């Protein structure tokens, strides 16, 4: 592409027509609601996040409202989104924001990075999407799209390097609000069109100038990434144990937990993992509850 920001312009034009109507993209939503969406969307499809995000933000429209409740309520509301430690991190973040920032999500990337569980991607995403700042926001979709379009390589890495940040930032317009929208557009194109398998190149706004297309769409280097299995794993057992705790109105005796899985060694290991992660607590001998429940 001839002009420095021609790629961004083309993708932004596509985005204005083809972007999904997602509630956290509404400019009227709060930075807290944007942060919640970013944490929920990690390793979780949009269609699963949508109902939980609505329920969460209806119940806790501010960080202070969540911080006032036990951490176990965050775990309960998390439902079956998976990776429930994210619920604990959101509760910890709500407490930190309430105590350090008067209940308002900070707009500075460095301040965001000081919040519990907020890493480089999330801090930049919140700064861009909630505060309309100019930051490179890179997930696997953005990295794959930029690598294909500019370098002619199919980059399937998951880690973000300093070079990645500098490269994507150089593609952004200088105007912060436009740059933030371009960041969202890059992500959307990677998620909907420039997908990992069977990309929809005929629907891509930059296909004629795409270096990967001109190179004959060479495959990614290295072995393909295979999705992790779930059936029979400790993750599945943890999920079953946590479901019992989440759905119970109060503490649960160990007999109810024992009924979730036949193999006692794996079940015990999974329960110990929940206790170690702070997702469950022992409130009396043989009695368990979600975190924050008073001992009995």
Structural description of this entry:
The structure is a single chain. This protein has 296 residues and is mostly helical. The protein starts with 5 loop residues before the first helix and ends in a 7-residue tail after the last strand. A hairpin with a 2-residue loop joins strand 2 and strand 3. The protein is globular and about 70 Å long. The model has no long low-confidence stretch (mean pLDDT 93). Strands 1-3-2 form a three-stranded antiparallel beta sheet. It contains 15 helices and three strands. Helix 2 runs antiparallel to helix 3, helix 2 runs antiparallel to helix 8 and helix 13 packs across helix 15.
Primary descriptors:
three-stranded antiparallel β-sheet; single chain; globular; 296 residues; mainly alpha; 3% strand; 15 helices
SSE layout:
Layout: H1 6-18, H2 31-40, H3 46-59, H4 63-67, H5 71-78, H6 85-100, H7 109-113, H8 120-129, H9 140-151, H10 162-170, H11 176-192, H12 211-214, H13 234-247, E1 252-253, H14 254-258, H15 264-276, E2 281-284, E3 287-289
Antiparallel strand pairs: 1-3, 2-3
Question: How would you sum up this structure in a few lines?
Answer:
With about 300 residues, the protein is mainly alpha-helical.
Largest sheet, spatial ordering of strands:
1-3-2
Cα(first) to Cα(last) distance is: 67 Å
Structural class label: mainly alpha
Multimeric status of the protein: single chain
How many helices? The count is 15
């Amino acid at each position: 592409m001839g002009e420095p920001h021609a790629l961004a312009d083309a993708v932004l034009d596509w985005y204005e027509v083809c972007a999904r109507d997602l509630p956290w993209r509404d400019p009227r939503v709060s930075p807290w609601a944007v942060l919640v969406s970013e944490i929920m969307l990690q390793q979780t499809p949009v269609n699963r996040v949508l109902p939980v995000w609505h329920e969460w933000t209806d119940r806790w429209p501010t960080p202070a409202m969540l911080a006032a409740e036990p951490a176990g309520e965050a775990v309960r509301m998390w439902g079956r989104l998976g990776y429930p430690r994210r619920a604990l991190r959101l509760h910890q973040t709500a407490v930190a924001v309430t105590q350090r920032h008067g209940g308002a999500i900070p707009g500075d990337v460095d301040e965001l990075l000081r919040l519990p569980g907020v890493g480089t991607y999330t801090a930049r995403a919140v700064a861009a999407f909630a505060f309309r700042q100019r930051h490179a926001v890179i997930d696997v979709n953005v990295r794959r799209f930029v690598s294909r379009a500019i370098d002619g390589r199919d980059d399937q890495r998951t880690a973000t390097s300093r070079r990645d940040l500098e490269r994507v930032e150089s593609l952004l317009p200088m105007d912060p609000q436009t740059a933030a929208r371009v960041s969202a557009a890059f992500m959307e194109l990677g998620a909907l069109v420039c997908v990992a398998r069977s990309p929809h190149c005929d629907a891509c706004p930059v296909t004629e100038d795409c270096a990967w297309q001109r190179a004959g769409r060479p495959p990614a280097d290295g072995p393909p990434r295979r999705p992790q299995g779930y059936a029979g794993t400790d993750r599945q057992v943890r999920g079953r144990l946590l479901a019992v705790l989440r759905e119970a109105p109060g503490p649960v005796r160990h007999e109810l937990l024992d009924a979730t899985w036949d193999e006692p060694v794996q079940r015990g290991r999974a329960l110990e993992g929940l206790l170690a992660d702070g997702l469950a607590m022992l409130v009396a001998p043989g009695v368990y509850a979600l975190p924050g429940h008073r001992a009995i």
